[in-house]
Write a structure and sequence with these properties.
Radius of gyration of chain B: 18 Å
Order of helices and strands of chain B: HHEHEHEHEHH
Distance between the termini of chain B: 56 Å
Largest sheet of chain B: 4 strands, parallel
Oligomer: heterotrimer
Distance between the termini of chain C: 46 Å
Shape of chain C: globular
Largest interface: A-C, 42 and 37 residues
Number of helices of chain B: 7
Helix content of chain B: 40-55%
Strand order of the largest sheet of chain C: 1-2-5-4-3
Structural class of chain C: alpha/beta
Shape of chain B: globular
Radius of gyration of chain C: 16 Å
Strand content of chain C: 25-35%
Number of strands of chain B: 4
Chains: A mainly alpha (397), B alpha/beta (171), C alpha/beta (150)
Strand order of the largest sheet of chain B: 1-2-3-4
Structural class of chain B: alpha/beta
Helix content of chain C: 10-25%
Strand content of chain B: 5-15%
Chain lengths: 397, 171, 150
C-alpha cells in the first residue's frame, strides 16, 4: 500500500516595492514577482509624479517655461535649463556671448558634481553604507552655497535666460569657486577611500546589472550608464555645445564587465573631470557681455527702460507675448548628469511653444529595469535602482 | 556631573499633559514621505549641516506604523493619492501632517490635470511651509512651530473627545 | 542633402513625402505605412548606422488635417549625427506600426505617446497607460484637452 505524500506546492509571490519606500529614490512602484528571494519578473510602474510639464509649457511663453524645466531633474537643477535655453536659441538662430557660455558651463559642471555626490550618498545608503552620504553632503552644501550666491536659489538657481544669463557673477563668487576647486580632489579622496576598495561594496555591486555595449545602445542608454558599459560617447565631446570644445577633459570609460561597480567608477571619475573643467573655466573666463544684445530676445537694461520709449515697448512685449522664434522644430540634446537630456521644441511662430517634448534620460533607463532584474535577488533590485540614478521627476515629468 | 549636579535630588511638579506633550514633541519621528524636489531639502535638513537630530527627529521611519509625523514634501498627484491616504490611515494616533513646499500647500506651479491642488483637500494639515523648495531653515522653523502646537495640545481633552464623538456618530 | 535622407529616398522612393533642413537638423517626412522597414534600413546600413533611438513622440496639429504626427529622432554613433523621421497619421483613429522590434527602447516611448496622445502602435508588446492612472479617460496632450483637466 502506498501512501501518497502531498507534493509541496510552490508559487511565486507578487509584491509591491513602493511607491512609498525608503530606497526607491522617489515615488517609484516596482511590481516584483518573487520565487523565494530570486526575482522572476520586475515591472516598474511609474506616473506617480507626472505633473504635466509638457502640457503646462504650451500655455506659457518660453521664458516662463524655465522654472518648470528646472524641476525636471531636481538634483541637477540648472543643467536642464541649459538644454532648454540652447534648444530655444537654436530655434532663434542666435549664439550667446562667450562669457555667458563659459559661466553656463561652470554652473552645469557644478550641478553635475552635486548630482553625482547625491547619487553616491543615496546609492551607498541604500546598500548599507551610511557614511559617504554625510561626507558628500559636506561638499554639496558648498556647491549649493555657490548657486545661492549667483541667484538666490539653492537647488533651482534659475540663472540662465534665453539669450544668456540673468546677470553677471556677483563679487566673491570667483574666490569661493577657486576655493572649492582647489579643495575638492582631497575631499573626493575621502569618498574613494570609503567605497572603492571596500569588500562589502564590491560584493554588492560587482556583477550586478550587466549590459553589453550593443544592448546598452539598443535600450537607449546614454551618459554614465552607457559609458559604464564601454560605449565611448559623450555629447560634450562629440557634439559640443556652449563652448565645450574649448576645454580639455577626459571621458572616463567603465571596465569591460559593464556592471554596477563599473558605473560607480565612471561617475566617481566624472566628478574629478568636472572639477577640472571648472578650473579651466575659472582660468580662461573672458570679460564681456552676458546676454545677446537683441531687444527682441533679451530684456533691455532697466535704465533704458525707464528713459527710452522703444526699450519700454520691447520690455512690455517680451513679458506679455514673449520672444517669437520662427516656425520650425529643433531637437537639442545635452550631456546632463543622468545622460542624454533632449528637448524637442516645435514652434508655430507665436510667443508660446506649440509642443515641448523632454527626452528624459531616467525615463529611458528605467525601461530596462525589467531586463536587468530578471534572475537577480531582491537586494540587487535596490542596487539596480541606485545605479540607474533615476530621478522620478525626470521619469514622469 | 552634568545635569544631575544642577537638578540635585528634587521633585518636579507638572501636569501629566505637559510632560507627555514634551515627550511627544521632543522625539517626533517623521515617516519617509518625500515625493519630489522638497524631499531633497528634507534629506539635506537631516544631513550634517542642518542636523535634524538636534530635535530628536533623525529617525525617519519607513513604516508608517512607527511614525507620528508625515511631512508631505513634494507634488501630490492624483495617481499617488490613494497611497497617501492609506499611509495616513496606517499611522497611529497621535499624528500630525506638515505640508512642505508650495506643491503640497496648494499645487504650486503645477496647475495641471494630474496634480492635486494641495494636500489639505484630503488630509488635515497642521503646519504649512511655503517655498519652492523651502530652505532647510524654513523646514526647521515649520517644525518648531509644530512643536509649539504640540505643547499646547490637550491630549486627553477636546481634540480626542471630538474625534471619538465623530467616530461614534459615524458608526 | 543629408546622406541618410538620400539613402531613404533611394531605397523607398514612394514613401518619402518631404526632406527639410532647419538650423542644421534634417527631418525626413515619410508615409507611415512602411516605417518599420525604413527604421530597420537606417539601423542596419553600415554607413548610416543609426543604432540608437533617442525618442519617439507625437504631435497634435488640431484643427489642421492630417492631425497627428509621430516623430522619431535617431542618433548615429559612427558619424555623430542625428536625423528626425516624421510620419503623419490618419485623423480618426491614429495607428502606426511599433518599432520595438527595431530598437527595444521604443517600448516606453510608444506607451507614453499612447497614454498622452492616444496613438495606437500596432505590434507593441504591452500597450497600456504608463504615466496616468489606468482608469483615466482622455488624452491630455491633445489640443482640446484643458490644461487643468476635465
Amino acid at each position: 500500500m502506498e501512501t501518497l505524500k502531498p507534493m509541496p506546492r510552490t508559487e511565486t509571490m507578487l509584491i509591491n516595492v513602493g511607491p512609498q519606500h525608503p530606497s526607491t529614490h522617489g515615488v517609484l512602484r516596482v511590481l516584483v514577482e518573487l520565487d523565494g528571494e530570486a526575482i522572476v519578473r520586475a515591472e516598474p510602474d511609474i506616473g506617480y509624479l507626472h505633473r504635466g510639464i509638457e502640457k503646462l509649457c504650451e500655455g506659457r511663453t518660453y521664458h516662463k517655461c524655465l522654472p518648470l524645466m528646472n524641476r525636471v531633474d531636481y538634483l541637477a537643477g540648472e543643467a536642464n535649463n541649459l538644454g532648454f535655453c540652447l534648444a530655444v536659441e537654436k530655434l532663434l538662430g542666435i549664439e550667446v556671448p562667450k562669457r555667458a557660455q563659459y559661466i553656463r558651463v561652470m554652473l552645469v559642471e557644478f550641478t553635475r558634481i552635486a548630482s553625482h555626490i547625491f547619487w553616491m550618498g543615496t546609492h551607498a545608503h541604500d546598500l548599507g553604507a551610511m557614511t559617504p552620504l554625510f561626507y558628500g553632503f559636506r561638499e554639496r552644501e558648498k556647491i549649493m552655497d555657490l548657486c545661492e550666491m549667483v541667484s538666490g536659489g539653492r537647488m533651482f538657481p534659475l540663472y540662465f535666460r534665453i539669450g544668456g544669463l540673468a546677470g553677471d557673477l556677483p563679487e566673491g563668487f570667483i574666490p569661493a569657486a577657486w576655493d572649492f576647486v582647489k579643495t575638492f580632489p582631497e575631499k573626493w579622496q575621502d569618498y574613494d577611500n570609503l567605497l572603492t576598495q571596500n569588500e562589502i561594496w564590491k560584493e554588492r555591486t560587482i556583477g550586478v546589472g550587466v549590459m553589453t555595449p550593443e544592448e546598452a545602445l539598443d535600450w537607449g542608454w546614454s551618459g554614465p550608464m552607457a559609458r559604464g558599459s564601454g560605449v565611448d560617447w559623450d555629447l560634450r565631446r562629440d557634439n559640443p555645445y556652449s563652448s565645450y570644445q574649448d576645454f580639455d577633459f577626459k571621458v572616463p570609460l567603465g571596465t569591460k564587465e559593464g556592471d554596477t561597480y563599473s558605473r560607480y567608477l565612471v561617475r566617481m571619475q566624472e566628478m574629478l573631470q568636472s572639477n577640472l573643467i571648472i578650473r579651466q573655466v575659472l582660468e580662461k573666463l573672458p570679460p564681456g557681455d552676458i546676454r545677446v544684445d537683441d531687444p527682441r530676445i533679451s530684456l533691455p537694461p532697466k535704465e533704458q527702460v525707464y528713459n527710452d520709449i522703444s526699450s519700454l515697448i520691447h520690455h512690455f512685449l517680451l513679458i506679455e507675448e514673449g520672444l517669437r522664434p520662427p516656425k520650425g522644430e529643433v531637437y537639442q540634446a545635452i550631456e546632463a548628469p543622468k545622460g542624454e537630456l533632449g528637448f524637442y521644441i516645435v514652434s508655430d511662430g507665436t510667443g508660446q511653444p506649440f509642443r515641448v517634448k523632454i527626452r528624459a534620460p531616467s525615463f529611458v533607463v528605467l525601461n530596462s529595469l525589467g531586463k536587468l532584474a530578471e534572475g537577480r535577488l531582491l537586494a540587487d533590485l535596490i542596487a539596480l535602482i541606485g545605479t540607474m540614478d533615476i530621478v522620478l521627476a525626470d521619469v514622469d515629468r | 556631573m552634568g545635569i544631575e549636579e544642577h537638578l540635585g535630588y528634587n521633585i518636579l511638579t507638572t501636569t501629566l499633559e505637559k510632560i507627555v506633550d514634551w515627550g511627544r514633541k521632543s522625539s517626533l519621528w517623521p515617516a519617509t514621505f518625500g515625493l519630489a524636489c522638497c524631499a531633497i531639502e528634507m534629506i539635506v535638513t537631516a544631513a550634517n549641516r542642518w542636523d535634524i537630530a538636534r530635535f530628536g527627529m533623525e529617525a525617519f521611519r519607513a513604516s508608517p506604523r512607527q511614525a507620528d509625523l508625515m511631512i508631505v514634501a513634494g507634488t501630490v498627484t492624483k495617481k499617488m493619492m490613494p497611497a497617501i491616504e492609506r499611509i495616513y490611515e496606517q499611522m497611529t494616533e497621535p499624528k500630525w501632517v506638515i505640508a512642505m513646499g508650495a506643491c503640497a500647500c496648494s499645487g504650486g506651479i503645477f496647475d495641471s490635470y494630474p496634480v492635486v491642488q494641495g494636500i489639505d483637500l484630503y488630509l488635515p494639515v497642521d503646519v504649512y511651509i511655503p517655498g519652492c523648495p523651502p530652505r532647510p531653515e524654513g523646514l526647521l522653523y515649520g517644525i518648531l512651530k509644530l512643536h509649539e502646537k504640540i505643547l499646547k495640545d490637550p491630549f486627553l481633552t477636546q481634540k480626542y473627545r471630538d474625534k471619538l464623538q465623530a467616530r461614534q456618530e459615524a458608526a | 542633402m543629408h546622406p541618410a535622407a538620400a539613402l531613404v529616398q533611394g531605397k523607398f522612393p514612394g514613401e518619402v513625402v518631404e526632406v527639410t533642413e532647419f538650423r542644421g537638423d534634417t527631418t525626413v517626412v515619410v508615409k507611415p505605412g512602411r516605417i518599420k522597414e525604413i527604421c530597420r534600413l537606417l539601423r542596419d546600413d553600415p554607413q548610416a548606422s543609426f543604432k540608437y533611438l533617442s525618442m519617439v513622440t507625437a504631435l497634435d496639429y488640431h484643427p489642421q488635417s492630417p492631425r497627428f504626427a509621430v516623430v522619431y529622432n535617431l542618433y548615429s554613433h559612427k558619424n555623430h549625427d542625428r536625423i528626425t523621421l516624421k510620419a503623419f497619421l490618419a485623423d480618426g483613429a491614429p495607428v502606426i506600426d511599433s518599432v520595438t522590434s527595431v530598437w527595444s527602447t521604443a517600448d516606453w516611448h510608444e506607451r507614453e505617446a499612447y497614454d498622452l496622445m492616444g496613438i495606437r502602435f500596432k505590434g507593441h508588446p504591452d500597450l497600456k497607460r504608463l504615466l496616468l492612472p489606468t482608469d483615466w479617460s482622455g488624452f491630455p496632450l491633445r489640443k482640446e484637452y484643458p490644461q487643468r483637466g476635465q
